[in-house]
Amino acid sequence: MVRTLLVRGLLLGLLAGLIAGGFAFTFGEPQVDSAIALEAAHEAPGHDHAEEELVSRPGQKAGLFLATGLYGLAVGGVFALVYAGLRGRVGPRSEGALALTVAGTAFVAVILVPFVKYPASPPAVGDPETINSRTVLYLVMILVGLAATVIAVATARRVTAGPWARWVAAVVAFLVPVIAAWTLLPTVNEVPEGFSATLLWQFRLASLGTQLVFWTAFGVLFGWVSDRAAHRAAARATVASPS
After folding, report:
1. Are 24 and 214 in contact (CB under 8 A)?
2. Is residue 25 in some structural domain?
3. What spatial distance separates the first Cα and last Cα of the chain, rounded to whole Å?
4. For residues 69 and 48, which has the higher predicted lDDT (pLDDT)?
């Protein structure tokens, strides 16, 4: 069964990645073009930006689908293994509801939590010399999101006062470490003075939207396929059982 789930996760992750790539191409790439044009306009006279470009813009746009597809493959595989470990242990018993719950939780923990503290910026924004430290800080926020999720689930399982009390306990247990990290970790602000706030906002919305499209598409597809597989298995078991 784990192998079936893994293959399902890889294929549906690839499909969801391509869907997210279409969204990023439509809504994100125009913001990247505008940011590059803005950067070129502020470069010193005589500086040839094209000389430093290892991959042309058309090549980068075509590679976007390869990148989101590979991202979907990797995430889909990891998701399937986590999903296999959670089935029947925590969360909803329905295959589809469990898939949507896990996908929604993953989006909040590994995408939304770090994004609030360290939102994405266009290629023209940011100091190349700080990319390593910024990457480390972003990974720390992902770990905080995952740890907060584990704490929230463990807390909810210990509460026996009813579903509302479990939800409140889980939300509080999740938010305490997340808010502490948002407050204590250093802030990164490398947006050049005079950079278009509207462009920055639109790019960040497109970036977050791409992740939202991916996780929504993947959660719905994985849940739908898993529900259909469970119904077919139940039907076969009913036919095979003696009357």
Report:
1. no
2. yes
3. 27
4. 69
